[in-house]
Amino acid sequence: MRASRLARLAALPLMATLGACVSVTENDYSDRPERASVGDFGEATLRNAAGANVGRAILTQGPTGLLIRIEADGLTPGWHGAHIHATGQCAAPFTSAGGHINHGEPKAPHGLLNAQGPDDGDLPNVYADAQGRVRAEIFTTEARIASSGPGQWLWDADGSALVIHANMDDHTSQPIGGAGDRVICGVMAAG
Predict the structure, then answer these.
(1) Tens of pLDDT along 42-57?
(2) CA nearest neighbour of 92 among 163, 167, 190, 177
(3) 3-state secondary structure the chain
(4) Considering the domain boundaries, does residue 36 fall inside one?
(5) For the chain, which terminus, N or C, has the lower number of CB atoms within 10 Å?
(6) Is 7 in the same domain as 66?
(7) Tally of domains within the chain
(8) Structure pTM?
(9) According to the model, what pLDDT value does residue 32 have?
């Protein structure tokens, strides 16, 4: 039971200082949030507004969320907003990707630091170095590529897209945290 396991775990530091040896062997995971099958894979070819291939995003499903590795070149040095958009289309200027994935009801407002947010497509900013290169890994519990599990399913009928913006996302203001123009887009697809 959850209560008994928590009580034993809470007592561990005290028992450790008293020299006691405790073994927690109970495997009751009923209190864990929904989990996904691990290992599903996907990717997105990242393109700029001119249509040039500037990198890729690799998606790997974890048990409680999605790991996204971003490798992109050609950005202005500095911080850039990154979001998951609801439609798998990337026709420049990338408005065809629609808004963020945000399927819950009621819809959550934008912003990782918004007291009422975040929406499901919000991600941390990525940083482009002096040569305009981004090499980052981002984890989100709000999206998935597995057929079941926590988060919004990205392989729905109209797909989804990863979008990188011209500016930094302030993670609070509406509608996109001041992140500005969409400068890179990639349609996410099963690998």
Answers:
(1) 999 999 999 999 999 9
(2) 163
(3) CHHHHHHHHHHHHHHHHCCCCCCCCCCCCCCCCCCCCCCCEEEEEEEECCCCEEEEEEEEECCCCEEEEEEECCCCCEEECEEEECCCCCCCCCHHHCCECCCCCCCCCCCCCCCCCCCCCECCCEEECCCCCEEEEEEECCEECCCCCCCEECCCCCCEEEEEECCCCCCCCCCCCCCCCEEEEEEEEEC
(4) no
(5) N
(6) no
(7) 2
(8) 0.80
(9) 56
